[in-house]
Amino acid sequence: MRRTFINSLSLFILLTLITYNSTTIVNASNLFAITEEVSYNKEDRFNNHYKYLGMEEQLSKERVSELIVMNLLFPYMVKSVTDYYGGFVPFQLNYPTTKLLEADWKTDLPRAYFVVKIQIHPFLGAHYSVGIDNFTFRIDMDNKITLEKFEHIKSFKIPDYVKKQHLELKLE
Asked: Superkingdom of the source (predicted)?
């Protein structure tokens, strides 16, 4: 029930952004302020968090839409990455470590659907990317999300002392 509510809220926000026609720039702090509590200074929290992630305060509508789509697909990506590497390997949803490669609308009969391709760079520690992984999702009009394809594109060499800290993972 909670997941349905969050997905519905995200879809509502996305639709609101698409129909928002007075400017081409959306202040992302307004987007995230909707779901936050009022007990702290939202603007300071937003600025500090997104400056840390290397993101600008002003995001284009297209970038905000990309972030919403990637956030909705995040749980499916975590499951696939965990299954592939044999345990949790973190990744961030900000550029350049995560890219939306394709978002397409298919009108194949009998039903239309979206195809979304995302590329991530999971990492260990602060600096050690373990590889490059691609996901291809199909999103049906009834909001059924299917991981069509998971591809491990490339592995990177990880120092032995980092591998020793993560013996449970399948690392090359």
From this structure: Bacteria
Domains and CATH numbers, the chain: 2-165 (3.10.450.10)
Tokens of 6: 């969050």
32: confidence class by pLDDT, cuts 50, 70, 90: very low
Give the contacts of 57 (CB within 8 A, at least 6 positions apart): 27, 28, 29, 46, 47, 50
- Please determine, for residue 126, whether its predicted confidence score (pLDDT) is greater than 90: no
Q: Which of 143, 134, 138 is nearest to 3 (CA)?
A: 143
Mean pLDDT of 114-140: 92
**Dihedral of alpha carbons 48, 41, 14, 3, sign:** positive
Tokens of 103: 């978002």
